[in-house]
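Issue: copy button drops trailing tokens. Both records pasted manually instead:
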Amino acid sequence: MSDTSFDYIIIGAGTAGCLLANRLSADPAKRVLLIEAGPRDDYHWIHIPVGYLYCIGNARTDWLYYTEPDAGLNGRKLRYPRGKTLGGCSSINGMIYMRGQARDYDGWAQRLGDQNWSWEHCLPHFKQHEDYYKGPDAMHGSGGEWRVEKQRLRWDVLDAFAKAAQQAGIPHSEDFNRGNNEGVGYFQVNQKNGWRWNTAKAFLRPACYGRPNFELWTKAQVKRLLFETLPDGTKRCTGAEVWTGEGMESAQAAQEVLLCAGSIGSPQILQLSGIGPAALLREHGIPVVQDLPGVGENLQDHLQIRAVYKVDGVATLNTLANSWWGKLKIGMEYALKRSGPMSMAPSQLGAFTRSSPEQPYPNIEYHVQPLSLDAFGEPLHGFNAFTASVCNLNPTSRGFVRIRSPRFEDAPAIAPNYLSTEHDRKVAADSLRVTRRIASQPALAAFKPQEWKPGEQYQSDEDLARLAGDIATTIFHPVGTTAMGPDDDPMAVLDGRMRVRGIAGLRVVDGGAMPTITSGNTNSPILMMAEKAAEWVRQDARH
């Protein structure tokens, strides 16, 4: 750390940060520093797909956040995993490759008045880094860093659920990533030959590690951003103050600081640095650098309602993994073939459909698993069962992320405010009815599915919404806390190129920049956003 002057400083070596480090350090004339609060991704459970079970809730790989008690969840708190290691959330997530729907991006473009965010203009940036297992076509790219493969397993109970969904009117889909993801089928995953493919492997190794102009700091947590006042009175971000574990270091950025600490970390760092709602900053004794009331607000997330069905006459992971012989068989299959349950993404089968006939587009997503448990991290049940988790893709509930103190070591308050609107409670009730309709189809009849949670006795909208609050949990997709918006939106934190309003030399490039949540899993859309940001950073450097 003898020379701490760089052209670009990237804060957070997660999904966006790793791609940006790769793209910006490709110019040998630019010095790039990548700062990660967590350790290197050398923990073996990161790379074995089922290892997410051992990474979530583990201080080695997870920030160990919890939400505030949530009225929509009947007062419950939720564990709120966020990746704290190289690769960030791509090292602990569900590995599902999902872009969302074309309408998501067309909606952003309309909101921002900028066609750069339309589906037509986003698709090339998805394809740019993609390595699709079937090869290139109009919708997919090949030869990029981000590997997309088929899953290496199937289950009879999931095949039966897929047939039942089709009998209930949901079409079969081979590919959810062509602009309209309506249908049912197995998810495609970010894996390579049965191993997790995180963004550190994809974008840092081997390219960045071999570049003399690239520097990586791990176990280094940003305390605050640094600023200078320009002659016209405006502020410019010039670097960051970083706790290295041994002391504070100040790193300087000649051109830009790119904040990629995620939808929780980025608003926290901005607030600690004096950028955010002025009243909140003053409450904690932080001098106001820029009053931006939207920093930390507009939190959106996908809440999954986990309906559990007992089944007979078909194997599920519950009984397979609850015997020493089953565990041995699972381990041997992975060791010899890199397939089977140890290669599993947390959810294998997916479906997108409408919660009710009047919905104009697919507004709910299923993650279906051949297992059941009381809560994530708890033991599997002793009976055979499957779980059909369903989430509202476009929730109207909004929450917040706010610092609790001026100390960078203290976790912020996270309050998603799930099910806080009548719309979201209605979609929750309707989506449980869709689950029941699928479970009642002939394709599943041989397995005698029995609703264990929430229970068939609950029928009214009010009952189902309340029960949803009892059994629902996050699906780990927080976005929107530093949202892009038009100039006339007082809550917009960023402009359409992800630049922080009123502060030169500073962008936020992560899920927090999304104005509204995408209709599906959020990891790969964030990579697309980082691809765009890399282009804009290079363009601005030339002017």
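Record 2 (pasted manually too):
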Amino acid sequence: MIPLRPSLLRRPREALVCSQCLVRSRPVRHDAIRGFLSSSKRRTGTANSQSPSVLHETYFSANRLYDRSNSKGGLLSSLASSNAKSNSTASSPPTDPTATGLDSSATPSAAIAPQATPEELPHRRRKRLKEQNNASSKADGCLPLDASAQLSNFSSALPTTSLRRKLAAYLALTKPRLSFLIVLTTTSAYGMYPISSLLTLDPAMTPLPTLSTSTLTFIYLTAGTFLSCCSANTLNMMFEPKYDALMSRTRNRPLVRGLVSRRGALLFAIGTAVTGLSLLYIGTNPTTTALSAANIFLYAFVYTPLKRIHVINTWVGAVVGGIPPLMGWVAAAGQIATIGHDTWRDMLFSENSIGGWLLGGILFAWQFPHFNALSHLIRDEYKAAGYRMLCWVNPARNGRVALRYAVLMFPLSFGLWWVNVVGHGFLVGSTVANGWLVREAYRFWQHQGANGTARGLFWASIWQLPILLVGGLVTKKGLWDGVWRNLFGHPEDEEDDFLYYEDEEEEGETAKPAETTTTRPTSRTSVLSTV
């Protein structure tokens, strides 16, 4: 056992405090602390019957009493005096404070400490604050910060001369998450185009493009679509900064906070539009480029000002969301289009364009349950900013429209299977995803967005769309035929091979006499007969 230092024995008031409080309040050597913890009897100098009074519940609190104590001794004096007072009242009459080794200045603290309410324990305080944050996040009108707001906060924290500050601010103008979603819908439609099946049906069509050609087209489509989205989103922010400042969802945008000037935003919008449209024109076809230019015009110059005029703006915005899948479909169709069949009418209104219109219809219908739920959560802010939205103009119709277009997802998904774009597995996956969306939309309509139904529909729409798009890519028609044959050993159709070789033999037979007649013409009659 380590002997106690005499200096500790001469300080009985410090024996009434736990070791953590002692270490925090006064610098003590480590060997003194070990001796202080070695023996409770020698440390307190009291009987076992009085030991429970030493282990007071305030010793294990947050020790906020130390900060509020105005006495000379601080926490040590207040705790020591309160313990001395409780012991003296239980066993003996009151004595002079100087007789117990306590300062007279600790008397006010001793009178206040027993009457103070017990402090909240740290872990309970953390739990309470966490529950309050969760409850506030579930309340209406509270949405997580979008990518633009996060990038704006990151940019504002950097030095004004930093290049990263400018890059983050300009990237915030593009609405990265929305742009990524649009690129996802475009490339998904591009990947679902059934090139192989069309080549099988029409042997006169051009051969399937090589891997390098299709990959290059995919890169042009992705980059051009993203830059076009950047231009449209930048113009949208540039036209309404004073209205964005009135809403918590948009008040952190870079133009509102002054991170980017209006002149800089305009030059950025023009530059991204010219670059994006040029990439689409060079890498895809003029029809895809025209669709992208029309989308920029609709979003920036029709949808944006219409938000303050009429609720029809939601339908215009849904058209803007339905064009990108059609762009991806037309870009894929342009790779196998023959001369004379590559006009915009053939690309958009032929029999082979039905799949692209169905994918565009899915995105058009998806906009309503998604946006109607989102707008309901911040309907008061939309009203204060002067935006004409169904969420506050006609709340009952807002729920009906969301439910109506959620139900429309079923026939549109079924149509993709009907036109042989996807396989049977897509019916199962799409039915589950669409059923989930319809269920949340029905609850949203039934409760008029209350009881958390608006938030439930919002998150259901966030997950339902990627399930449909990825499911369509995975279950693309003819994608797993080769894998199925390799696994189960089904031979390929011999009839197709026989017809293929027969056509080659016929072509060889007709080509051989023609070759002999041109190289060795015997007479006019033989040449005419061969021809």
